[in-house]
Amino acid sequence: MRIGLDYYRILGLPLVASDEQLRQAYNDRIVQLPRREYSIAATTSRKQLVEEAYVVLSNPKERKEYDRVYLAHAYTQNGASVAVAVENRVTATSLNQNVDVQTPSIEVNDDELVGALLILQELGEYEQVLKLGRPYLVNKSKTDNENFASERPDIVLTVALACLELGREQWQQGNYENAAISLETGEELLLKEGMFPSVRAEIIADLHRLRPYRILELVALPIEQAADRKRGLELLQQVLEERGGIDGLGNDQSGLNIDDFLRFVQQLRHHLTVAEQHELFEFESKRPSAVATYLAVYALIARGFTQRQPALIRQAKQMLLRLGKRQDVHLEQSLCALLLGQTLEATRALELSQEYEALAFIREHSLSSPDLLPGLCLYGERWLQNEVFPHFLDLADQVASLKEYFADSNVQAYLEALPSDAENIESDWRTSKASPTNATSNSASKIYSNSTVTARPNYYRDKVSEIPQSAPVNYNVPSNDYNSRLHEPVPVTARQTNGRTQSQNNQVDTNIVAIPKTKRRRQPSSTKNVANANQRVAPRRRLRNRNAGLLLKVLATVAGVFLFWLLISTAFSWLKNILIPGPALQGEQLSIQINQPPVEIPTPGSQPQYPEGTLTQETAAQVVQSWLSAKSASLGSNHDIDSLNQILTGSALSYWRGIALQMKSSNKHRQYEHAVSNVSVKPDANNKNHMTVQATVVESTTYYENGQTREQDKDTVRVRYEVVRVDKGWRIRDIALVN
Length: 739
Hints:
Blueprint: E1 2-3, H1 7-11, H2 19-31, H3 40-58, H4 60-75, E2 90-91, E3 105-107, H5 113-122, H6 126-143, H7 146-172, H8 176-193, H9 197-219, H10 226-243, H11 258-269, H12 274-284, H13 290-306, H14 310-323, H15 330-339, H16 343-352, H17 356-364, H18 373-388, H19 402-407, H20 409-417, H21 422-433, H22 442-449, H23 457-464, H24 482-486, H25 502-512, H26 527-579, H27 617-634, H28 650-665, E4 668-684, E5 687-705, E6 708-726, E7 729-737
Antiparallel strand pairs: 1-3, 2-3, 4-5, 5-6, 6-7
């Protein structure tokens, strides 16, 4: 058989190598040994070829003749025949179709084939090894002579190792499917021959580590290549089965831990359609898996909204009830209720959410409305557009429009057919409120249980028209965490509070603390025990009585000394006034007592007190100015959030405290300059403790983030303040802009 090798390549030398380089290359080749799985015959065959190349090239006369033949072959057109040198081992022409006519070659015997293949493999000619080795195995297996039977294991091993190294090379080049084909070819050969289990295990390990790359490569193909994409999803299903789910603890031998695999799934989602994700994650959620359930919710909402199938959104809402036992998903529940036309339930779910940034955005865009629906509508559209659609291959360019969604006749028909009785809603909310994530009181539970929510698509569509046409430039919809869940160690996701408020955490901590047990004295059960107990207690009583008597004597002595000093000082003062009279005071004297201040001193940090009756224009201006000062302090660099308690109450207090806490956590603050004018007061005829104050406020704002100035803004607005009297002071209950 003719092999595409020459003596220079066997030794790994250039044509102009010196004698010293020749000797060094020969020594290196002799010292290097192939893998231990090779037989002695294979090692000897390789050594013979190396020695033959060295003998020819180390002899100046033979090397000169070899170079002549080598160069003549290299520059001869069409492989024309030239003189044969060195015992016909080297020829310029080749009749073997596996050898390039422009490449010098050598003729090898069957017993030297293994050595030649070993050298080709060492040179990285893996494709050449496969071209020569695989046909040789097929052809010789038909004759099955004794010599071939002895050398067959070495050839099988060489071909399998060539497949392994070729697969790794293609892996590094990013050709993952070709790499898998090469590795699978080697593994199938070893399995068929039943040889070298350690090498086969090495190939299988590489195949397992390669699977995530293959999956990404296959699902990233265009949608038209459905067969290849389906094969990628089948591989993904195999991996999930071995891991026990997305967040399972099984070992798929890919080398990815839970966080790495979650990031892999998050990366994978961008290449899957909404239908593919729906099918995949809904199946995985039944293991059960919290991560898969959350991802299935997103797929159901996206598919239900874009395909106008509210039934899918209702299914997502039911799945959120299960998730609510371990994390705060009230915002998602509110959005699902919104898409189902259950506006009252959407508002109630929103009140339970702890997503302060989202709540601040919704309230800010609902100031001119009696409820939060306009802001919730705008937030829902932006949430779908920015947080849901980008994670689906076929929805990346989709535009979210609630108005078009509710205008669909199929959606309206489904929403009108939804049950509106309070029992279904009560059972849903009882399930979610039973979880440790909710911090609502029993009174809130009663409110929910006594109310009904009806599907009102037409009413909701009217509300959609109230959505503001513009939004703050610096607004970012808060991310869910599945990026936390999925992009930080791992895929998945933002909002992992475990649904506990601060008060609940304190309660849990108290329960965890181990309280040492004290031994109780057993109550005496008989008269004898009572007598013994009295005898033991009697000495203690006498000791206490003696101490009490001694204490009374000490107190009596101190009182006598004080009385004596008082009498002496009084007599001395009387004698002084008689002997040395002072000037008499003229006019009526002030009634001032030592133990009382002449004017009432307010306590530190107390709210300024206002007189009874209605507010005047002057005191109303003071109330507004007090609010603006508290706003500057709470949102300023010192984040004095408690200052809000001195001027706000009710919903206004909870709203602005939420904004202040969010800014403090994100390392942001603002610097304000205010000017108040045109203050007017309108009393409430039915309640003297309720006033409506309107004022024109000029507000100059400088925004800071991480200590750096971000932007500046100045605005003039007319603001309406709902003011109530609390503890002899006036506080602001509600703030709204006046058009």
